[in-house]
Design brief:
Radius of gyration: 19 Å
CATH architecture: 3-Layer(aba) Sandwich
Largest sheet: 6 strands, parallel
Bound molecules: 3-methylbut-3-enyl trihydrogen diphosphate, magnesium ion
CATH topology: Undecaprenyl pyrophosphate synthetase
CATH class: Alpha Beta
Structural class: alpha/beta
Number of strands: 6
Number of helices: 10
Strand order of the largest sheet: 3-4-2-1-5-6
Strand content: 5-15%
Length: 255
């Protein structure tokens, strides 16, 4: 930790025990951020990439186990070709520029989604970076790329059906754990907190199964403006909530 980080008063206000273990973020509003300034949408994606760097660094410093970022949805393939190309270029730039830092900070890079749909060069770079960071044991950074929650559940069902057809599993043994184990997110902790920026109040096909008991944090801030103060505010609000998981408040308080 650098002295500057240590003396950050906003950090001191956060109780480490009350932080989420797994944060998931729908990073939305890049286009509107740029438009509000009279700039091209791509400028918003560029500035959004800087928010990604800041948030990854902060989450690692705070000791989160997992951070999952919605970077490109299955549905985003319907965007104009030039915008898709710009996003892929930015992803490549992000992977190249963060590789060393991820290795140094013990961050393991992971990807979920139909990543074989990515352009070959992006796909190769992604595989290469994941391999280079595979020794990271401090935090898992998962990028959801060409990701759709329904598609993920469908492929999990397909996988289990194939195993059953081969006689490897008994259909009656297919329970929640088996389904969870067939998802792309297999092995990751439960999502504790889901943040969506830009004022939209929807989930847009993100982690449908995994957010069953997540806390939600919606903010009007556009993603390029979402930096440490906004992240800390989300964590502060999260810490003040009581997660009851079906029980009563009295049960949890031992009353
Ligand atoms: C989020 O910002 C980034 C991606 C979906 C890739 P948007 O590009 O959706 O920005 P808005 O919602 O149009 O403002
Ligand atoms: C969700 O944002 C996908 C990502 C953040 C990558 P969108 O901007 O694509 O969501 P909708 O289409 O407005 O719901
Ligand atoms: Mg959007």
């Amino acid at each position: 930790m650098t002295p500057k980080e240590k003396s950050d008063p906003r950090l001191d206000q956060l109780d480490p025990a009350a932080l989420p273990r797994h944060l998931a973020v729908i990073m939305d509003g890049n286009g509107r951020w740029a438009k509000s300034k009279g700039w091209r949408r791509v400028k918003g994606h560029e500035e959004g990439a800087e928010s990604v760097r800041v948030v990854v660094r902060a989450c690692r410093r705070l000791g989160l186990d997992a951070l999952t970022l919605y970077a490109f949805s299955e549905e985003n393939w319907a965007r104009p070709k030039a915008e898709i190309e710009a996003l892929m270029r930015l992803l490549g730039r992000f992977l190249k520029s963060q590789r060393q830092e991820m290795i140094e900070r013990g961050i393991l890079l992971n990807a979920i989604g139909t990543i074989d749909r990515l352009p070959q060069a992006t796909y190769d770079l992604l595989q290469d970076t994941m391999a280079a960071t595979s020794g990271g044991g401090e935090m898992v950074l998962t990028l959801a790329l060409s990701y759709g929650g329904r598609q993920e559940i469908a492929q999990a069902a397909r996988l289990l059906a194939e195993q059953a057809a081969r006689g490897e599993i008994d259909p009656s043994a297919i329970d929640e754990a088996a389904l969870a184990g067939a998802l792309y997110t297999q092995g990751l902790p439960e999502v504790d907190l889901l943040i969506r920026t830009s004022g939209e109040l929807r989930v847009s096909n993100f982690l449908l199964w995994q957010i069953a008991y997540a806390e939600f944090h919606f903010t009007d801030t556009y993603w390029p403006d979402f930096r440490e103060p906004e992240l800390y505010e989300a964590f502060r609000q999260y810490a003040s909530r009581q997660r009851r998981f079906g029980q009563t408040g009295e049960q949890l308080e031992g009353g």
